[in-house]
User: Fold this.
Amino acid sequence: MSKVNFSRRKFLKITGATAAVGTIELVTYKAYAATSSSSGSMSGANGVTGMSAASMANTQAPADHQWVMVIDLRYCNGCKSCTAACQKAHYLTEDQTWMSVFTMTDGLGKTYSMPRPCMQCENPPCLHVCPVHATFRTDQGVTLVNQGRCIGCRMCMAACPYEARYFNWNSSVSYPQLSVKPTPEFPVPQRLGTVGKCTFCVGNLNDGYLSECASGCAMGVIYNGDMVTDVAVNGNGNTVKLSQFLYENDAVSYKPSQDTHPRVWYILGHGQNLDTDVAS
Amino acid sequence: MVLLEDAHSTEDDRSNYNSYNDNSYNENNSDGPWLSEVKNAAMRSVRKKPGKLWWVTIIVLAAVIVAGLFAWIYQLKHGLGSAGYNDQAFWAVYIADVIAFIGVSYGGAVISAILRLTGQSWRAPLTRLAEAMALVTVVIGGAFIFPHLGRPDRILNIVVYPNFSSPLFWDFMAILTYMIATTIFFYLPLIPDLAFISRLFGDKKSSWQKFLYSTLSFNWLGNKRQKEILHRGLTIIALLIIPLAVSVHSVLSWAFALTSRPGWLETVFPPYFVIAALYSGTAMVVLVVAGFRRGYKLQRFITDRHFARLGYIMVALGLVYLYLTFADLVSEGYTGITTGWISETISGRYAIPFWFYVFAGELLPIFIVAFKRTRNAKWITIASFFVVIALWVKRLVIVLPPATQPLISGPWGSYHFTWVSITVTLAGVAAIPFLLMVMFRFIPLFSIEDMEEAGELGSVEQVSNHTLALSRLLKKATASSSNGKNPITVQAINTTEELV
Assistant:
């Protein structure tokens, strides 16, 4: 692990590819992909792109899919229909914005909208601090919460640098009667006194459907991607080659200084200029 | 033998004292006047029937505790939201309570342990009260984990599915270990006293109380070998409890300092928490000692000097804590590498509680202890009261700003107290005097062994023996006078007591 981090930092130092937008810290996909291949994990030839040693260590046999998300900020108008779609599908309260849209300020002082799902970190801080292993990471690279085991200590909420976790504070919420029992993949209804978060709609993805936020976004901002098949698709049906799409659009990840290695990539737009950001 | 206090006490008290034979404490007539007095005073809480004030206090405290339990049941039903929590104020009052209560426990245990290890004979009348307070507060502090959790019914999951990389797992383990150590630390010096009480029941073989006391005292006889073993055991546990308590508070601090949140990710946190615990704990020792000193009229044994000494220790710890507070704020404050929690603490939404801590929890006690006029039991008790309150407030100021700060963008979160969280917290506060008052109905107020040792060592107590003899003479004079209310002798008795 530390070896990987070191080599990534070293790489960034050499290429000067550090990026920061205002107070946001970002790392480029280019740097990530290069480091991953330099650290000896599978890449290119068999189609697995940019899988770091961290994710490989957790997977005994490579899973069929390694889910990622790409968020194309160039087209996000901040309508929050992704949030609404997510809340409707998971019967969440208004405060529980698993997919949350933040209003950000860029280096030029302009504001832009940034949807924030769970980053599905390859090195998730929430997982390390959970005292009862209620948070776990699947072989598909998705971090989930077992609400049947969670003791509600909220240590994960303290540890998450992305504010991606939401607690079930009140019993007043009414849930519909559902035929299926709640699972970590589809934790509906939420349980009082436990923590919840974005699941990447991993059940949808495995069944061949898009996540609720991606299909709910009319602007086609949100892409569901798979690193194994190297494909990403958005709600408008636009299908791209994942690695190429990320590479050509200078995709970045959020808060790299936290060493979390997110599996959510952002494509910057709305006036932010990556070169300017590097200079600042 | 007649007690000095009798001169001031009510008729009720006097009849109580006369109702049992003082010689029962003087087992083989070998006790000196000092030891007799000690035994009389130490057994006051056990032998004296509780008065009206005791019952009123107990009932009021019990009512507060019951209200707190009710509030907790309400919270279990309606969720933590009813205690004012939300996604930005995800940690708030209950974790501050856990830290504050376990903190004062640490203070009690370590003050007692350090004074024991350094052979401070003046500690003798304080250790039992301090150790009992340590035990009671660690139990209450541990209990506050339950309202803190969203699903307290699943707390055993920590043992069933342990994650060794989680700071909370180690919190749990550290608190449990410390709880056991505190119990032993409280229990060991109690053994001779339990044996002493069991002997008071005389030869009544059938008495279940005698049976219980003698069983709990492991048939302590007080011979040289037993004393040696006990002494060695006490030294070991006193040595152990200091690093143990340091580890508890370090691990508690790492529940915060091992997250990436600005304001919690601080290298200063472990010592910061340890010193806060010692500081508030010393203040709580003063409060408990002051309460029992007044309630059971122990002024002869616990004097202004004791308060002054505790006051010095308290202020020294307070200054270290003030320094650590400054050290915590200055580096990020100076460089500006912060998300605003420092400015919010110093001049923003958390400024009032923060400056309350600085003035009431630091400057006030420093001034009270600094001036000779206020360096007495009354004022140091007032200072300690403010220290305990201010340190609880300070814990909230440590918990809330980094929790409620926005990590991405948007407004600050906020925590609002509700009747649930206030009632549950007050129940914890009320449980301290409640448990102590009930506990001391069954055990002596002092460790008689410690007091005997201190008496042999002399110092203050030797002087008090002389004055005691003087007062006894005066007392006899009073008794021999027609109504016992001769103003000159009463005044003389008062003067003698002040001398002591």
